[in-house]
Amino acid sequence: MAFHRYDAVVVGAGGAGLMAAIQMAGKAKVAVVSKLYPTRSHTGAAQGGISAALGNTEEDHWEWHMYDTVKGGDYLVDQDAAEVLAQEAIDAVYELEHMGLPFNRTPEGKIDQRRFGGHTRNFGEAAVRRACYAADRTGHMIIQTLYQQGIRHNLNFFDEHHLVDIIFTDDGQCAGVVTYEIRTGELHVIHAKTVVIAAGGFGRIFRVTSNALAGTGDGVAIPYRRGIPLMDMEMYQFHPTGLYKLGVLLSEAARGEGGVVRNRDGEAFAVRYAPTLADLAPRDMMSRFIWQEVKEGRGIDGKDYVLLDVSHLPPEVIDEKLPDITDFARTYLGVEPKREGVPIQPTAHYAMGGLPTNVDAQVIRDPQGTIVPGFYSAGEAACVSVHGANRLGTNSLVDLVVFGRRAGKKMLEDIETLDCAELPKDADAFAREQIDSLKARQSGERAADVRKAMQDIMMDNVSVYRDEGLLLEAQQRIGELKESYRNVSIMDKGSTYNMDLLEALELGNMLDLAETIVHGALARQESRGAHYRGDFEARDDVNWLAHSMIYAEPDGSLRLEKKPVVITRFEPKERKY
Amino acid sequence: MEVTLRIKRFNPETDKKAHFEEYVVDVDPRDRVLDALNQVKWYQDGTLTYRRSCGHGICGSDAMRINGRNRLACKVLMQDLGKRVTLEPLMGFRIEKDLLVDMDVFFDKYKSVKPYLIADNPPAHGERLQSPEERHIFDDTTKCILCAACTTSCPVTWMSEDFVGPAAIVNAHRFIFDSRDTAGIERLQILNKGTGVWRCRTVFNCTDACPRDIKVTEAIEQVKRALIFGDQ
After folding, report:
1. Which domains does chain A have, with CATH numbers?
2. Which pTM value belongs to this model?
């Protein structure tokens, strides 16, 4: 075992983690832990843009951005957090530009902006150009730019270290993390004053997903196991336009530039459901429209997909503004988007839920907002909550930079005042035990089989459409799979790059999270945003204008508490587009 | 369809040298090479080791030699490869295990060209201005995903360990030609050394290998021209 001591540990080297680390660079001793090389992080897959009310191409105001965020999230958004998001987005985008991010430009040389789903002018009147972008690889440019700054600031990277445990003292202060060095198999205890979880989401729980294979929610599952509640886990976003079967994302930018989604009859059907925004209706709605079309037999060839059509756009717009996503269609489906529609279906994309935090990215442990000293979270792993029941396109990148930055700043402050909590003697015992038992088991279930069964039941029963029958079945199945997981054995018993072991550890994390998603979805007897219950079709503001907080009880059961939503400027209204 | 994968294997804990092992997989023609590898790892041999993450050519984890050419395993479809497919690790870097190589040297070379914006103080409010034309000049080299497919396809890299290699030059180019950057001269000086651009023999392997279709050789030539003519 290796031992280290730092002021701050950043878990995850995507947008949020690097943004946090850069705030602290040179001012505190910071370790950045990632199970990948930082530039492999999934921030890099984000395509379309990062919204900020710069008003570079038409009038815009942060209050409009805030309103769209709140309404887009079906009023489950904490409005104090949405205000911070929309206001600070502006400076955050300028900061990225100052760091070198190569945004597309207007003829005057300013950052160019384009339309995106759910972003409107004057509180819902019509679509507005708010998304700042770098072709359709905005996330790629963010991760590259932030990594470049990381190099410049000489950040201390622990590349290819997998998080296996987080250490808390008996009185609840975070004392550090335990990581598994993938290259050597050695355990590392990193004793620290502050730890921020910026380790991303968990789309791999579902069969069809836009997420990387690394998107297994380790950073969310591990604190949950250690008694930290998870918030709004039932709020999981399905992006309407994933490549058929593969789930690879085709950005909303395609529709922002004028693309439409068509059914079997060639009808651009979105306008029938959302007369004002049509194809730029928010993602939860677009996914549901597609689901409805397919259900009523208007999928292509009667199958479960429809077509994304950009063939009517000028070829130079496709080449200049949508090069990557058209390349995906050509590479993976052999389809030429300049001539024909691209087969698409909703794909598991983004967790609105996660570790509950306040606006300073401090993790809280109860509905009263009691903070967990020394413990922070930002980005997809966290739930501030700025996305509520449905995240708007581009707001994930805004979330990363705004709250990643806030996390770093708050940690820097707290490092001054916090004492390093005392480590328990056997800090790595739990991690070691977990790994040893997986390696020791000579025969048993195959992780791949358990994983596939989990992905199938979550996709079939807990995705765009849910009801009690489906959810109860999923609950039982996940329970059985958790039992099976106890008998999982791995073939690789070595120490060098044991990816077999890693995948088994990741599966354990995903199963715990799947269970919380189902639990939250069963409890929430209403339809709101991404959470659609066929047996409770209406939104229920009397009982469920509230966040769910799910706790893992010592006896293996789950407990749910409600946390009121913070409402400041915008009273809940019916959500129409 | 049934395909035989011939995979170069090396386990540092048990093997003295690398050897080939064969696996038969049943794949859909549209499956990616990565899907075929996963099939082996998940259902046949859990010890098979390679890096992967995004699965769609964006993160740069799974560059490897596929039938002798550097490609991303997630960006090549099985239907384009025939019934026997040979998979080997990238050449020129130390093999850590199976298809996974030591990337430290690669990232060290990348870091050596100062791959970050060095610029005067930004305006107090708002962005630095840059025209679409100025932005367009370095657009191609911003696409790099640091997968190392170019650098490890370069015969000069295989022969001389100290050549910075195409990927580092691409990333230097990205800043040398960025109108906002003020350290172009510094980077040009680095690339003017014996380890820099003059080692390039214009073989075009790098351009062929790039999964992002970056015109790598052209970028290297632009850096050479900047050194000779100062037309940066």
Report:
1. 1-235+352-420+547-577 (3.50.50.60), 239-348 (3.90.700.10), 429-546 (1.20.58.100)
2. 0.97
